């Protein structure tokens, strides 16, 4: 239990956000068993792994990129169970720009966990790191995801047409973004 309390931020009474690291591989693989088919249509294919080695590979990839001040991965624990998370899919301090992504297993949807966790990442990117812009990319028909971007105060900047191949179809991809000045004005 101490491990859950340390190095984590409360999202609500029953939920916490903390770095998702290689030592969580077994927990992450078990979570992926609950999340896999739910997230598969909506996230990058490399994130949808089938076994412990695959889960460990995702965590290692993020750890290596974090070591270079790039991508970062954070898990959300609800009642002590890993149920999803948020990440910097890209993080480029020199360019002043990042992209945030997210996922949940079905039982954790509808509680505001992703909106709140994403706000923590935006605050860190804009306030602590001085970034200028944060993006959010989603399939144009991913209504739950675009609803999060909207709740965060992001603007839909455009659509990359037929840029997301899945299941034999090429789907449109929305690009949402928020600027640091807009975040400061919008921040709850
Ligand atoms: C996208 C995804 C993470 C969104 O999850 P979500 O639970 O809808 O998002 P949030 O955690 O922000 O919760 C918002 C919901 O909680 C409700 N809610 C409850 N308390 C809330 C609070 N304090 N703040 C905000 N929302 C709250 C909202 O009303 C909303 O519910 P509704 O959609 O029924 O109106 C989830 O649907 C998912 O994992 N989908 C598959 C993978 C995926 O698409 N990933 C993103 C790829 S771009």
From TrEMBL:
Query: Can you give the residue ranges of the N-acetyltransferase domain?
Result: 20-176
The cross-references to Pfam families, in alphabetical order and at most eight, read:
Acetyltransf_3
Which Gene Ontology cellular component annotation is one that this UniProt entry carries? Answer: cytoplasm
What keywords were assigned to this record?
A: Transferase
Transferase keyword on record? yes
Q: Which InterPro entries match?
A: Acyl_CoA_acyltransferase, GNAT_dom, Ribosomal_N-acetyltransferase
- Identify a single GO molecular function assigned to this protein: protein N-terminal-serine acetyltransferase activity
Q: Which residues form a coiled coil?
A: none
PROSITE patterns per UniProt: GNAT
Asked if the record carries the keyword Transferase, the reply is yes
The protein in question is named RimJ/RimL family protein N-acetyltransferase
- Naturally occurring in which organism (per UniProt): Streptomyces olivoverticillatus
């Amino acid at each position: 239990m101490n491990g859950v309390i340390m190095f984590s931020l409360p999202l609500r009474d029953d939920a916490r956000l903390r770095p998702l690291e290689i030592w969580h591989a077994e927990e992450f693989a078990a979570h992926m068993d609950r999340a896999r088919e739910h997230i598969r249509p909506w996230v990058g294919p490399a994130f949808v792994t089938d076994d412990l080695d695959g889960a460990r590979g995702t965590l290692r990839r993020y750890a290596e990129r974090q070591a270079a001040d790039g991508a970062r991965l954070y898990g959300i624990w609800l009642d002590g169970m890993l149920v999803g998370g948020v990440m910097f899919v890209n993080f480029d301090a020199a360019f002043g720009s990042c992209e945030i992504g997210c996922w949940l297993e079905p039982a954790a949807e509808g509680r505001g966990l992703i909106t709140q966790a994403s706000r923590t990442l935006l605050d860190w990117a804009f306030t602590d790191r001085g970034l200028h812009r944060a993006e959010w990319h989603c399939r144009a028909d991913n209504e739950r995801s675009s609803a999060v971007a909207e709740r965060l105060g992001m603007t839909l900047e455009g659509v990359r047409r037929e840029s997301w191949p899945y299941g034999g179809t090429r789907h449109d991809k929305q690009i949402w973004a928020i600027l640091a000045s807009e975040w400061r004005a919008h921040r709850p």
